[in-house]
Amino acid sequence: MPPPRVIGHRGAAGHAPENTLAGLRRAAALGVRWVEFDVKLSRDGHPILFHDQDLERTTNGRGPVAATDLADLRRLDAGAWFGAAYRGEPIPTLDEALAALAAHGLGANVEIKPCPGRAAETAEIVVRQLRAAWPAGLPPPLVSSFDEAALAVARDLAPELDRALIVGAVPADWPARLERLGCGALHCGHRDLTAATAAAVTAAGITLRCFTVNTRTRAETLFAWGAASVFSDRPDRLL
Ligand code: G3P
Ligand code: MG
């Protein structure tokens, strides 16, 4: 079962704190069938759901994630910044996220988002865990990254997993990059995309998905250009 047209971004980031179990739950409640979330490593090498390199924006902690052990990350509040109703929401481990996907019947695009200098290690740990513990009964995960070194490790360790290269603006040499990494999909920012570029990508047999798309009119344009899916903070507007 391929990813659907509408994928919840960081869970459903417009409705609940990004990259939290509450966000996955909320996405499912909105009727979303697949979510995207970001995974990186704690200092001591545990995969967690988190977007930024630093803790300040989305938690009550300080400093880089890469300098913080899992036990200390787990004491932080990753929900209160979004709203009082989410106070006490923790940073989830990848294990907990997989259990939540299973509980809610959600498919997932797992974005490998390494801290600086940790691409290979992050990809290795994440991909091994996806292989070992992906819930039976869910569609296979889609692995993606902006980081080409991470994608190369994923390709070598788990060639059976679908992979996507993420870019902001689509670079001129996208065919060579996708070929080298064995990626069947390109995930791009929608703002700089043109109909001509979208047509060239899809004509090459590459699946095109766009982020972050929060209006119905923009989603319809992108679908008309050949995009297979969009990532949305507000998936309920598009479903
Ligand atoms: O995976 C698509 C999108 O999430 C990439 O950008 O910064 O939201 O992780 P970002
Ligand atoms: Mg992401």
SSE order, one letter for each helix or strand: EHEEHHEHEHEHEHEHE
Task: Give the strand tally.
Answer: 9
Radius of gyration: 17 Å
**Termini Cα gap:** 18 Å
When the domains are counted, the total is 1
Strand content: 15-25%
- Strands of the biggest beta sheet: in what spatial order? 1-2-4-5-6-7-8-9
| Main structural class | alpha/beta
Largest sheet: 8 strands, parallel, barrel
- Poorly predicted runs: none
Write down the CATH topology: TIM Barrel
Which helices and strands appear, and what pairs or packs with what?
Elements: E1 6-9, H1 21-30, E2 34-41, E3 47-49, H2 70-73, H3 94-104, E4 107-112, H4 119-133, E5 142-145, H5 148-157, E6 162-167, H6 174-181, E7 185-189, H7 195-203, E8 207-211, H8 216-224, E9 229-232
Parallel strand pairs: 1-2, 1-9, 2-4, 4-5, 5-6, 6-7, 7-8, 8-9
Antiparallel strand pairs: 2-3
The structure holds SN-glycerol-3-phosphate and magnesium ion.
How is this structure best described in words?
The chain is of the alpha/beta class and 239 residues long. It has one domain (6-47, 93-237): Phosphatidylinositol (PI) phosphodiesterase (TIM Barrel, Alpha-Beta Barrel), CATH 3.20.20. Helices cover 32% and strands 19% of the residues. It has eight helices and nine strands. It has helices at 21-30, 70-73, 94-104, 119-133, 148-157, 174-181, 195-203, 216-224; strands spanning 6-9, 34-41, 47-49, 107-112, 142-145, 162-167, 185-189, 207-211, 229-232. It has an eight-stranded parallel beta barrel, surrounded by six helices. Strand 8 (207-211), helix 8 (216-224) and strand 9 form a beta-alpha-beta unit. Helix 1 packs parallel to helix 3. It is globular, with a radius of gyration of 17 Å. The mean pLDDT is 98. The structure holds SN-glycerol-3-phosphate and magnesium ion. Magnesium ion (MG) binds next to strand 2.
